[in-house]
């Protein structure tokens, strides 16, 4: 066969296409919840802005619903450089950057505005910066909302109602200490095991914000919802440090812009579900009660011994400066 101009043009086009495809970097982004959750909405916003800012330099592959494993495994994948990005709760973050655990202290924040101001302020930003020392890069703080208790045993009004309750906590020593002090029987567990453990009665309950309870349809496996708001639940948009270090300045700026918009989308979702979530869950058949101020104070008093441990670990000055932050 003679090699003519048509063959040459086709070959050149193929080489150009292959070059473009090779130049495009795939971003695998993993998260524990569904595409229509606060994490899914944030991940889609992140992709949308990165693509708008950088043209065809990146492509995205989403792994929702723990498609890449539990949050700890995904973070380890980022450290290894086998996964580029994730959105995670603070569940296991303190195992990587211990100071992050200070935000997991129960009854620390008075409301969403207070928490957001601290995370966006110097204390939150300094802790975000620490992730660069452990093979990760923290792009932005997002959030899930305040965590509430669900269970199948009884409605909860007082610490006596959680006595011996087999409750799943995140793999988070700060949360574990609080539920221990309350008199519950906490079991730390990775999220992918939680639904089957509830179905099989291995645990009676779990705690998560309305954003999770609604989007995961926890009403299908849990009867009682107690609006305890016992702890704020931050989230973080993290990327792999090896991936981050390979980006040029324009690409880094695009990722930062995209992360800020993704975090805003996540907070918008939370604002929405905080107002509509309780009605949705009642309609789906859950028995809901909200702790009164006095009931909440009794829970706060019940974890006094855990607070002594928190002061030892994080320093009372830091804890107080967060409580009093304006
Ligand atoms: O409970 C947890 O582990 C987390 O809140 C979840 C549901 C995985 C979201 O990050």
From TrEMBL:
Gene3D superfamilies: Bacterial extracellular solute-binding protein, family 7. InterPro entries: DctP_fam, TRAP_DctP, TRAP_DctP_sf. It is found in: Periplasm. Residues 1-23 form the signal peptide. Its main location: periplasm. Keywords: Periplasm, Plasmid, Signal, Transport. Transmembrane segments: none annotated. GO terms for cellular component: outer membrane-bounded periplasmic space. One of its GO terms (biological process) is transmembrane transport. The keyword Cell wall biogenesis/degradation does not apply. Belongs to the bacterial solute-binding protein 7 family. This is Solute-binding protein. It comes from Sulfitobacter pontiacus.
């Amino acid at each position: 066969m003679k090699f003519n101009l048509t063959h040459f043009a086709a070959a050149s086009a193929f080489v150009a296409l292959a070059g473009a495809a090779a130049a495009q970097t795939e971003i695998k982004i993993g998260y524990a919840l569904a595409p229509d959750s606060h994490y899914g909405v944030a991940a889609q916003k992140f992709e949308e802005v990165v693509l708008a800012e950088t043209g065809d330099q990146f492509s995205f592959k989403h792994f929702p619903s723990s498609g890449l494993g539990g949050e700890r495994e995904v973070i380890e994948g980022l450290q290894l450089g086998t996964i580029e990005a994730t959105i995670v709760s603070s569940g296991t973050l303190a195992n990587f950057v211990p100071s992050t655990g200070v935000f997991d202290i129960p009854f620390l924040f008075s409301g969403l505005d207070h928490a957001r101001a601290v995370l966006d302020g110097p204390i939150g930003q300094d802790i975000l910066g620490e992730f660069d020392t452990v093979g990760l890069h923290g792009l932005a703080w997002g959030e899930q909302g305040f965590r509430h208790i669900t269970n199948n045993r009884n409605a909860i009004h007082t610490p006596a109602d959680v006595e011996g309750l087999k409750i799943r906590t995140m793999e988070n020593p700060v949360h574990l200490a609080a539920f221990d002090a309350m008199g519950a029987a906490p079991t730390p567990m990775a999220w992918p095991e939680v639904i089957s453990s509830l179905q099989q009665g291995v645990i009676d309950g779990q705690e998560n914000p309305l954003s999770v309870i609604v989007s995961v349809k926890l009403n299908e496996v849990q009867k009682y919802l107690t609006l305890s708001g016992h702890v704020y639940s931050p989230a973080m948009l993290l990327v792999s440090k090896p991936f981050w270090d390979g980006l040029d300045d324009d690409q880094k700026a695009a990722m930062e812009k995209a992360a800020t918009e993704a975090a805003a989308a996540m907070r918008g979702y939370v604002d929405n579900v905080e107002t509509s979530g309780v009605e949705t869950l009642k309609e789906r058949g859950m028995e809901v009660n909200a702790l009164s101020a006095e009931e909440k104070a009794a829970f706060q008093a019940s974890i006094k011994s855990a607070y002594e441990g928190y002061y030892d670990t994080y320093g009372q000055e830091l804890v107080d400066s967060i409580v009093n932050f304006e």
